Amino acid sequence: SGTTANPKGIMLTHGNYVWNAEQAVDRLNGIPSHYRTLLILPWDHSFGHTAGIYSFMKCGASIASVAKGKSPMEILRNVPKSIKAINPHILMSVPALASNFRKNIESEIEKKGKFTASLFKRALKTAYTYNKEGYNKGGCGRLMLSIYDKLIFSKIRQSFSSNMKFFIGGGALLDIELQRFFYAIGIPMYQGYGLSEATPIISANSPHAHKLGSSGKPVPHMDIKIVDDELAEVPTGEKGEIIIRGGNVMKGYWKNPQATAETIVDGWLRTGDMGYIDKDGFLYVLGRTKSLLISDDGEKFSPEGIEESMISTSTIIDQCVLYNNQSPYTTALVVPNVAALKKTGVDPEQAALLIEKEINEYRSGGKHESLFPHRWIPSAFAVIEEPFSEQNGLVNSTMKIVKHKVYEAYASRIASLYTPEGKQATSPENLEALKKLLG
Known about the structure:
The chain is an alpha/beta fold and about 450 residues long. The chain is built from 15 helices and 20 strands.
């Protein structure tokens, strides 16, 4: 544990894992014994353990691992051929992987020419309209959707994995557009929620109960509440901190009784995450209380949705971290997709303006203007040359960016974004970084 604070060792017992594996299987209404999964996620994380290994073992289903490689990047490159070889029924995923899957699918579609690309876009539009939030899908468009499915979506599924029923998404908040995309092509990505201290599964969407945009229904045999700062439960639909109680709650932090006492209060695990539960019992997670954007007037907002959306909708933004700590405006650290920028043939100044244009799509008049409150869209950005990775310590084993380390590493760049010169898209720092990247 430790994407927003100093890492702490978490003591999970055999009983914790047995309990949470049972909860996970119950939430899915069982896993057929003939099912296979390919474990792409690292085995040193509780999500991979519980959802990937123990849940499948419990049901007598099969588990395979990705072909080995000499480096983490080589292992990731082996994922497509491993999927082909194993032909899994279910995959565990995190937003970074899901985004890569989508980009690979779209890249293959583009290679087939303008007609196929246009057909694919029309098919997606039809599917989005018909599917709505999943649980309430229906209305006009069913016939056209079945035609599009036969013409294009079924072929995508066949080329990806003909057995695939669905993904289970965890590790971080999954952008709603990614969820709609995979739901449209017929391989739903059911968002779940958890944290290592809970072994880790707390809630999940499933084939029989799902709402796109939510983190699903809480697992059975566990108590959950949304509380205010005084730990008093708030009414249904109101925001607060998510706290849980059950057999999946950790024993405590290793050799850290003070942190344990602060986190487990009267048997309740304080997750440190903000969220709410709707009238149908679905949990919505809004983000870490410690990673929230905080404006200069004290308003708070979770950045994960904006970050994931920018990464998934832009071909030239690979990674993005937002920052606002009681500042006059929000800023962003952007790792560009160098190959995509080079393909456009732009120079450093044009590249900077192109990135700015992508960000401004979330403002008034942009194609994504209705997705997020405009005050939280970055007013300035810094181009970062080196991707955030496990190698430089800025990404953990589940591909989550460790924000407090990013803020520390790029403190001077963040500070410069709040100066008149540094605020410009074509600031000297951005042009210098892009000059090096573009060669």
